[in-house]
Design goal:
The complex is a heterodimer of chains A (577) and B (436). Chain A is built from 25 helices and four strands. The longest helix of chain A is centred in the middle third of the chain and has 37 residues. Classes of the chains: A mainly alpha (577), B alpha/beta (436).
Chain lengths: 577, 436
């Protein structure tokens, strides 16, 4: 290829549109119109929500679905921006890291639905009388369910950038800013995309819970699939629930095909490996855009802009640069910094104590902890049950590659499926047969999260080396021996990953799952989730704070004392290859 | 040939030292008072064992780490951060997998703020020069190792550095590919087509150094310092079979082993004495295999290191490492580029497995002080067990954490072979309870 050809990418030809351009253009314009339409709706005054209340007419569902999707995408966009800033700060500055990472760890275990109480009030006050405030509250709720794992993934990637690439970028005089965009971000990309997809799936649960919310005497109902479902439950309209599930299914398929698959296929080049993998992910959507001419030509300015931005000569403060040459860190500054952290922690603790002790007595604390242990018991029993069921099933599927290939996406869809849509069925059954709510509401907690165990076990069993299976076969290992000596150790690290996600999700779900209703029938199970949910509805903020704090502590302890050691053990001893 | 003395120096290193923190918090010296001057028009090689600090020196010159003391100047300016006019080629290639060949090559120019038209021209020229034509739009993972390292070279050459640094650039490649790349590079250099003034390369391959360099600095280990400077006046292209070439290689082999003579035989290359001896792990299988090879024909107990290295397809570095382990255990003696079995070594070669283990155990107890120490502690304690941490702390008084890790790994592996004591990985416990 000559130089001239490379400089001018076949200019005359490139601008002549082809058929793919037409298809792609329609898709792009369609997306723009939808976004603008959805955006316009949020500018209305709050009273407009009462004028056109959510109705169960299925004809409204496409619009509701659109608005729900826009909220989710907006939340993902916020999460990405947050991730870039937070993760970069934590990874590049030692002092920021001291605070940011433990903070992230706690934020991860805070029950998101408990957050709603404060954020709805905050955002409604920020934009009094506008729908926008309520929309922001909802988006924020989704954001809080999506951001943390993305941030962790990015932080860990940046910390683990290969040393030789780091040295290369230093030695070729890349500035800190250039290095961030040329090295850190691309290296973090595969993990970030995978976590974004997980977050998007997880977000559905919270969309459904946060579009229609009552805090004290404020009730906000934003048009969307979530409020449609809420109304359906209230009106005991089973077909409406069916429509909502169908609409959601279509939305999930649409963004998977139109958004995530192209992104995954495109991002394949960022995978850090030295050999080409056998099967690269593909996407018809990406192929379509790659075949267009005019639209691709339109992207050149963006590519140039991207290049220009990453080449900005921004001088970052010293601490953000690669800190190989800076001498030993100053102990005085460290001391001051620690003192500052201690002071603000002390102040925050004091204020929290003051606020809570004004209305609560120690007996409240004990009862909250008691409820916490009841919910803890539920989580443990449910994880154990799910393990008994899904580990054998997952192994069976995972050892059959053809089947696994077909089941895997299904399991991932089921994980995305907001379990709250299935609640009505449970309530109807419990009421009809007069079952004990304390026992039979519990499965709702794990309804959505058990799939993480399944698809991680499938992944583990699929990755189990054939030679080990053959060796086990040739030594006639069968039955129990085969399970205990061969396959269970083999899938252990995968299982733990799944179980951690499932247990975290179950805690969160308890706030919704321990209180379920169908029309006028309200069922309550005793537990910390119900405690928080009831307090939220009553607008009893001190109890909400107390409940959240107890849940936070329990989740963190549970993770530290059980899951982390198990995870470390699995990684150290049982990771194959 | 240019008269080197008339040239201004590109690089001036005066009394550079570098130390790293030890496990116990003290400093471990890895580079001691190194002097080095590089002028225009020469290829200089830093030759040494792993751990001799040669890579550390290269990174100091590249501005990636700072010297603990001493003066490092590049083109008259003290090196603070990567200096201008210096580019580096990495052992692991260090290519960005998400950038194409062309984008990888352009990266260094972009960082310098060179406008895109010019950077494209220069990148294509560099790609052309290094023989990568046609691969511009390929991603690194689509290329073979040799092609990847060519990208590494193109990326370094495109910035037209005065000094090209190479960190064992051929050691990750197979023998044939490495040879092609070396010859191509030397051809371009002798034809004056490389846009550079001088080259500084780090290597542990003696033949490679003799093949490419005008001047070789031989580093000794622990702490690293320049043990000798050897001029290579052979004209390019050099022939490996040329008697002068062979002689030079043999003399460097000898030089790198001869320093064992004046001191106690066990100490060369193995730093520290007593309990603080730093051990590098070699499998007992490899040691037995080497002893058998040495005992059998054609060596009959006495081998010339370059010949042995050639026939076993080992790098000089690896053969030294093995030889020193045998020497430490008194199964062999290193001297003047030769490896000779001791009487114990000859006996070992003809023993059965259990008798070998017994002999090995005997030598471990006699010549590796830390083994004796651990065994004594285990014998004395009523429980006959002791946590590893107890010995790790003691080791870390003498060495860095990494070295302590390596030493512990060696202790565990050798003790297991010799059945001296057992190790429980989960409890991190040494004990006398061998499962029988």
């Amino acid at each position: 290829m000559t130089l001239q050809e490379m400089l001018t990418p076949r200019l005359g030809q490139a601008l002549r549109p082809n058929i793919w351009d037409a298809v792609a253009l329609i898709l792009v314009i369609g997306a723009m119109v939808l976004i603008v339409y959805g955006g316009e709706q949020t500018a209305l005054p709050l009273s407009a929500l009462d004028v056109t209340p959510v109705s169960l007419d299925p004809a409204n569902l496409p619009v509701y679905a659109l608005r729900t999707t826009l909220r989710m995408l907006l939340a993902i966009a916020c999460s990405i921006v947050f991730t870039f800033i937070y993760a970069a700060l934590a990874a590049k500055s030692r002092r920021a890291e001291m605070v940011l990472i433990p903070l992230l760890d706690i934020l991860q275990s805070v029950p998101i639905l408990g957050f709603l109480t404060f954020t709805v009030v905050f955002f409604l006050n920020l934009f009094p009388g506008r729908v926008f405030g309520a929309e922001l509250a909802c988006v924020f709720a989704i954001f809080t369910s999506q951001a943390w794992n993305m941030t962790f993934s990015m932080y860990q990637s940046i910390r683990n950038v290969p040393k030789d690439l780091e040295e290369a970028s230093q030695s070729f005089h890349l500035s800190g800013w250039q290095r961030f965009w040329r090295l850190d971000v691309p290296f973090a990309m595969p993990g970030l995309i995978w976590n974004t997809m997980m977050s998007m799936s997880g977000g559905w649960f919270f969309v459904v819970a946060s579009e229609a919310i009552t805090v004290g005497n404020t009730t906000v109902t934003l048009p969307g699939i979530g409020s449609y479902v809420a109304l359906g439950i209230q009106k005991q309209n089973l077909p409406a629930i069916g429509y909502a599930i169908l609409a959601m299914l279509l939305v999930i398929i649409a963004y998977d095909q139109l958004l995530f698959r192209p992104v995954v296929a495109w991002a394949d080049k960022f995978r850090f490996e030295q050999t080409a993998s056998a099967a690269a992910p593909t996407s018809w959507m990406l192929d379509l855009f790659r075949r267009t001419r005019a639209l691709r030509a339109l992207t050149y300015p963006f590519a140039a802009l991207n290049k220009a931005v990453s080449n900005f000569h921004i001088v970052l403060p010293g601490s953000l640069r690669v800190a190989t040459r800076s001498g030993p860190p100053s102990r005085i500054v460290d001391g001051l910094w620690l003192a500052l952290i201690a002071a603000s922690t002390g102040y925050a603790g004091w204020r929290a104590y003051e606020y809570l002790s004004a209305t609560l007595s120690p007996s409240d604390v004990f009862s909250a902890i008691g409820y916490g242990f009841i919910t803890l018991l539920r989580v443990i029993v449910l994880i154990a049950l799910a393990t008994l069921i899904w580990v054998p099933v997952g192994v069976w599927i995972g050892l059959r590659p053809k089947l696994a290939e077909r089941i895997q996406p299904l399991a991932q869809f089921l994980a995305a499926f907001p379990a709250n849509l299935a609640f009505p069925v449970f309530v109807v059954i419990i009421v009809r047969y007069g079952l004990n709510a304390n026992v039979w509401l519990s499965p709702l907690m794990i309804l959505g999260t058990q799939w993480y165990i399944l698809f991680n076990v499938i992944a583990g069993a699929s990755a189990f080396p054939t030679d080990l299976r053959e060796a086990a076969g040739s030594f006639h290992l069968r039955g129990w021996q085969w399970w205990i000596k061969v396959i269970l150790p083999g899938i252990f690290p995968y299982y733990i990953t799944g179980a951690i996600t499932a247990s975290g999700g179950s805690w969160n779900a308890s706030i919704v799952a321990e209180v379920a209703s169908w029309g006028d029938t309200h069922l309550t199970a005793t537990g910390l989730g119900a405690y928080i949910a009831t307090a939220t509805e009553a607008g009893d903020f001190p109890r909400v704070v107390l409940g959240i704090a107890v849940m936070c502590i329990l989740v963190t302890l549970f993770n530290r004392l059980l899951w982390r050691p198990l995870y470390a053990f699995g990684e150290r001893r049982l990771r194959l290859g | 040939m240019l008269d080197l003395t008339q040239q201004p120096s590109l690089l001036d290193i005066r009394g550079v030292c570098r130390s790293f923190p030890k496990g116990s918090g003290e400093e471990l010296l890895v580079l001691e008072k190194v002097d080095l001057t590089i002028k225009s028009g020469e290829i200089v090689g830093l030759l040494g064992r792993s751990g001799s600090g040669k890579s550390t020196l290269l990174r100091i010159i590249a501005g990636l780490i700072a010297p603990s003391s001493g003066d490092a100047k590049c083109r008259g300016e003290t090196i603070v951060g990567p200096p201008n006019g210096v580019a580096m080629v990495f052992q692991s290639f260090a290519l960005f997998p998400w950038l194409t060949v062309l984008q990888n090559v352009e990266l260094g120019l972009e960082a310098l703020g060179i406008d895109s038209a010019e950077s494209r021209t220069r990148a294509l020229a560099a790609i052309d020069l290094i023989g990568l034509d046609g691969f511009e739009s390929a991603y690194p993972k689509e290329l073979s190792g040799g092609m990847r390292q060519r990208v590494g070279f193109a990326r370094a050459l495109v910035v037209h550095p005065d000094l090209l640094l190479m960190d064992e650039p051929f050691s990750a490649l197979d023998v044939l590919t490495a040879e092609t790349l070396r010859t191509d590079l030397i051809d371009l250099w002798t034809e004056g087509r490389l846009p550079i003034k001088s080259v500084l390369m780090v290597t542990h391959n003696i033949e490679e150094a003799v093949l490419m360099c005008d001047r070789i600095l031989v580093f000794s280990s622990n702490p690293g310092r320049v043990a000798a400077e050897i001029k290579v006046d052979l004209p390019h292209p050099r022939n490996r079979l040329d008697p002068t070439f062979r002689q030079l290689v043999d003399s460097i082999y000898a030089r790198m082993t001869q320093r064992a003579e004046p001191r106690a035989p066990a100490t060369e290359g193995i730093q520290g004495t007593g309990v603080g001896m730093i051990l590098q792990h070699v499998s007992s299988n490899v040691l037995s295999g080497l002893i058998e090879t040495l005992a059998g024909p054609p060596y009959n107990g006495h081998a010339d290191l370059p010949v042995l290295a050639g026939s076993l397809q080992l790098e000089a570095d690896e053969i030294f490492h093995l030889g020193e382990s045998l020497q430490l255990l008194r199964f062999a003696q290193l001297s003047e580029g030769d490896l000779m079995l001791t009487d114990a070594g000859k006996r070992f070669a003809h023993l059965e497995t259990d008798a070998r283990k017994k002999l090995f155990a005997e030598h471990l107890m006699n010549y590796v002080p830390v083994m004796g120490l651990i065994r004594r502690v285990l014998d004395e304690r009523p429980s006959h067990s002791a946590p590893v941490a107890r010995f790790r702390n003691e080791l870390e008084d003498h060495m860095s954490e990494d070295q302590a890790d390596e030493t512990l790994k060696t202790i565990v592996s050798w003790a297991r072979y010799a059945e001296l004591f057992a190790y429980d990985e989960q409890a991190e416990l040494f004990s006398l309870e061998n499962p029988h």
